[in-house]
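CORE FACILITY INTAKE
Project code: CF-77B
Contact: R.S. (postdoc)
Sample description: multi-component assembly, two entities in total
Requested service: structural model of the whole complex
Turnaround: standard
Below are the sequence entries exactly as provided by the requester. Do not edit them.
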Amino acid sequence: MTLQPTFQIEMLNFHYGATQALHNVSIDIMPREITALIGPSGCGKSTFLRCLNRMNDTIPDTEISGRIRLEGRDIYAPDADTTELRQRVGLVFQRPNPFPQSIFDNVAFGPRVLGTVSGRNLQELVEDSLRGAALWDEVATTLTSPALSLSLGQQQRLCIARLLAVKPDVILMDEPCSALDPIATTKVEELMRQLKEQYTIVVVTHSMQQAARVSDKTGFFWLGELVEFDETNTIFTRPTVQRTEEYITGRFG
Amino acid sequence: MNPEDGTRVMTTTTRKSTHRKPLEILLEALVRVAGYSAVVFVALIFIFLMREALPTFNEISISELFSRRWYPIEDYFGTLPLLTGSLVITLGAALIAVPFGLMTAVYISEIAPRWLREFLKPLVEVLGGIPSVVLGFLGILVLAPLVREILHIPTGLTAFTGAVLLAGMAIPTIVSVAEDALDTVPKSYRDAALALGATRWQTIWRITVPAARSGVLTATMLGIGRAIGETMTVMMVTGNAPQIASGLSAIFMPLRTMTATIAAEMGEVANGSVHYHALFYIGLALFLISLTVNLTASAVLFRARRRSERLLS
């Protein structure tokens, strides 16, 4: 049996005003895998990521064409529900952005907004989510203290826990470790490997080592085009396009 | 340039800065005087108020000062109706202005498209600059007759009319300050909430407004402060009857505020008389009330800021 891709993206084009940020990007993202997107700054990889949960909708003066299907359904269809989409496809931001509230309230935000869980179940869900983000042992006794008192690395894992609490299918990560120190980065990468068992992950990263360490597939973006997309191993050992090779060997970018 | 030149230049500039120019000394002195003068003026005003108001306590007993009848011609100096008058009107204005002002601020900051926002913000500020006499005119000519006809009451010059107009004066302040506060909430909070599947309303009420709460509180306090001190409008539209009406219908009866009393009677009072001292006593009370409101507001703000500093360090 062949696996159905989680995301099927066909001929995606994206404009900020008059500037075209993405050119005819087509890619299939497979479930329970980590897909890494690499490329120099401004190459469109973050824009691409934000198309997948329609976070670009909040930016005025943008235009999108092409098709993105999540498990067969067009997420830009007129009757598509963006809030439901964003619950299924969560986003971890570049800088940790916990709410200025307690640790517990941060994780409970999603479930409370959905209104599905309350009371004892909510406490269990918060605990499960914090465990899922490998943060529980560090914060179990300080759930009521402010989230902003955590270290940056803990804050980023808290943001991941907050995401897990709404039970998404896909986790998008936009340079999740660029604000973190090496030890915190290692922890987040370990976490990504664990999360892969249950979730589909797409990660944008500036660190080629990170892409090589954690991902199953790697896509190389350059000037808004997807230059090459393949198994991570292949990309880093036998790239077929010369641009890719030049980038990963550090000759430009 | 060789390194020796560099060191020589540096030493000369250091020496220059210890020998300051006379102009700089003069400017610094001027700025310092300007800064101290604010303190001195407030102190002088307070001393003056005290000097004119304190004799009241010898001339009028405390129990009479808080009795229910203000009729200076016959030596009745009960300030209670004036105090309740001011409180009723301020409270009424706050009840209208705070929710309305906050909602307007949320609309301008969070919902309105950019072009409308650029248009509404200056408009609100212009609204805040309308002289209170002009609003009083509107109150007498438009609002008061309307209130009288709709409610079938003998006069439209009521506490309610005054509260509505005062709210109109406080709203621009509240909107402007609250909007600035909402504006400083980092976009990353909103993005985080939206990315979790929250709707725009949930994002506003659960994240953006709570994150801006200290600014929102300042806005409320400034708005209320403006309402307490306002004189002209309330004098024109509240009927100026120093009475304490009981029950809910009091809202639709005339009343008189502390500010209006001073403004109306100060011109005709004999210098140094009992009445004159009583008016200054009212002024002193007003001063203390607004001082309390401001101190409370800044204490709350200070605590909030201390907490956020602790978090960031």
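Facility notes:
- Chain A has a mean pLDDT of 92.
- The longest strand of chain A covers residues 19-29.
Invoice: internal transfer
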